[in-house]
Design goal:
The protein folds into two domains: about 170 residues, 2-Layer Sandwich (Beta-Lactamase); about 130 residues, no CATH class. Helices cover about 60% and strands about 15% of the residues. The chain has eleven helices and six strands. The protein has a six-stranded antiparallel β-sheet with strand order 3-2-1-6-5-4. Helix 5 packs antiparallel against helix 6, helix 6 crosses helix 7 and helix 9 crosses helix 10. It is rod-shaped. The N and C termini lie far apart (about 110 Å).
């Protein structure tokens, strides 16, 4: 009878323990923002292991760091505190992926994670690793003020808890990294968009200044240079001098008025040249008609004549084409 009761009690205990382990797994896997449920996790873990303080420490071997991501109860180190892995004493845990129990005064001086525990009155520490896909990604740090507070049973439970939450922690870390990368990409996209906008404005300003400069050069040549060349042409010059003046006049006009050469090459009439020049500057048919003092239909007729002499297809925009030459 007594044996049956003991077996029944043992079965109840085992069922209870497994239900707590399952509950911990359910809590941890309920969100990718795992820090939201650490408090619930600690409450459930305390039902299996009687402790005074608990911490979750995550490992980054590439950066040689161990970071306290959660702590509750008797606090030895603060959340967010970062310690080096090297010479911390946990290298052995990383290699073996096995948990251990440390008693005050029995070889725990070499463990920087627990060294600070002395003035806090901690006498027993249990460290259990989180192993995911064969790699230790962190560990559970459990503290008790009582001497010899933890045994093999507690170490086994800590291992079961670790196996339940290691995958969730790894996925949460990956989610956090991806979220950070996404945010950085979004910020870079915003900066790139702003840069493109600024570049467009700059290019538009440069184009505007370029046109203004071209207009000033043309105006200066037309008003300050060409009149004197015309006077020179009317002077009594030697044949060689006349040729030189003609070359100067021709070259200046090629530089300042490339549209004149364009008109000559395509047999445009003076009226067509005027319409082409005003069209190139962005004027509409109505505006050109007002400037030249002619009817809009006359301007349209000249535009058709220009398109025909340039052999432009119907789909080609005349203004765009004139700007490209």
């Amino acid at each position: 009878m007594k044996k049956d009761r003991e077996e029944q009690k043992s079965s109840i205990n085992i069922s209870f323990e497994h239900s707590i382990i399952a509950r911990i797994g359910q809590i941890i896997s309920s969100t990718l923002n795992i820090e939201e449920v650490y408090e619930q996790f600690a409450q459930e873990a305390k039902k299996l292991i009687d402790f005074d303080g608990i911490s979750i420490v995550l490992i980054n071997e590439e950066e040689d760091t161990q970071t306290i991501t959660y702590t509750a109860g008797l606090i030895v180190r603060k959340k967010g505190e970062v310690l080096p892995i090297s010479n911390s004493g946990i290298e052995g845990i990383l290699k073996t992926a096995k948990g251990l129990i440390l008693e005050k005064g029995k070889g725990w001086d070499g463990y920087s994670v627990v060294k600070k525990s002395f003035p806090m009155g901690v006498n027993t520490v249990l460290i259990s690793p989180f192993v995911y896909q064969g790699k230790t990604i962190g560990f559970l740090h459990i503290r008790a003020m009582k001497e010899k507070a933890f045994g093999e049973r507690d170490l086994r439970f800590a291992g079961l808890i670790g196996s339940q939450i290691a995958g969730a922690i790894a996925h949460a870390q990956l989610f956090k990294e991806l979220t950070k990368s996404r945010d950085e990409l979004e910020q870079n996209a915003i900066k790139l968009s702003e840069l493109n906008t600024a570049l467009k404005v700059l290019l538009q300003q440069m184009e505007k200044e370029k046109k203004e400069l071209e207009q000033r050069i043309v105006s200066n040549i037309e008003q300050l240079v060409l009149p004197y060349i015309e006077k020179l042409k009317n002077c009594h010059l030697e044949p060689l001098e006349k040729n030189l003046v003609h070359v100067i006049d021709s070259n200046l006009k090629d530089i300042a008025f490339p549209h004149i050469r364009f008109a000559q090459n395509h047999n445009l009439t003076p009226a067509e040249l005027k319409v082409a020049t005003l069209t190139r500057s962005g004027k509409t048919t109505k505006e050109i008609a007002m400037i030249l003092g002619v009817a809009p239909s006359t301007v349209e007729s000249h535009r058709k004549g220009i398109r025909k002499k340039l052999s432009l297809p119907r789909k080609t925009n005349l203004t765009t084409y004139l700007l490209s030459i």
